[in-house]
Amino acid sequence: MTNANQTHDEPDAEVDEPTTDHLDNVEDGCGCTEIWEHMSEERESASDD
After folding, report:
1. Residue 23, exposed/middle/buried by CB under 10 A (0-12, 13-18, 19+)?
2. Number of continuous H segments (helices) and E segments (strands) in the chain
3. Predicted local confidence at residue 33, as pLDDT
4. In Å, what is the CA distance from 26 to each residue of 10, 13, 18, 32, 49?
5. What is each CA distance from 15 to 2, 9, 19, 23, 43, in whole angstroms?
6. DSSP class of residue 11?
7. What's the pTM value of the predicted model, to 2 decimals?
8. What is each CA distance from 1 to 6, 18, 35, in whole angstroms?
9. Per-residue confidence at 22, pLDDT binned at 50, 70, 90?
10. Buried/exposed code over 35-45 (b: 16+ C-beta within 10 A; e: otherwise)
11. How far apart are CA 3 and CA 46, in angstroms?
C-alpha cells in the first residue's frame, strides 16, 4: 500500500502519519469486520445528533 503523502522527489521529507483516533475504542488485534462495525456505529450515532 502506498502513502499518498510520500513524495519521491524529497527522500528526507517528513511524512505525516495518518490519524487513528477514530479507532481508539477498537480492541487491538481485531479484524476488519469489527472495525467496520465500530465505524458504522459511530456514523449512526453522529447522524442521530
Report:
1. middle
2. 1, 0
3. 93
4. 35, 31, 16, 11, 22
5. 12, 13, 12, 21, 28
6. T
7. 0.50
8. 12, 13, 19
9. confident
10. eeebeeeeeee
11. 28
Locate 42 and state its grid cell.
Answer: 459511530
Residues whose CB is less than 8 angstroms from the CB of residue 1 and which lie 6 or more positions away in sequence, other chains included = none
18: number of Cβ within 10 Å: 8
- Amino acid letter, 44: E
Q: Of all helices (H) and strands (E), which one includes residue 42?
A: helix 32-48
Place of cell 467496520: 36
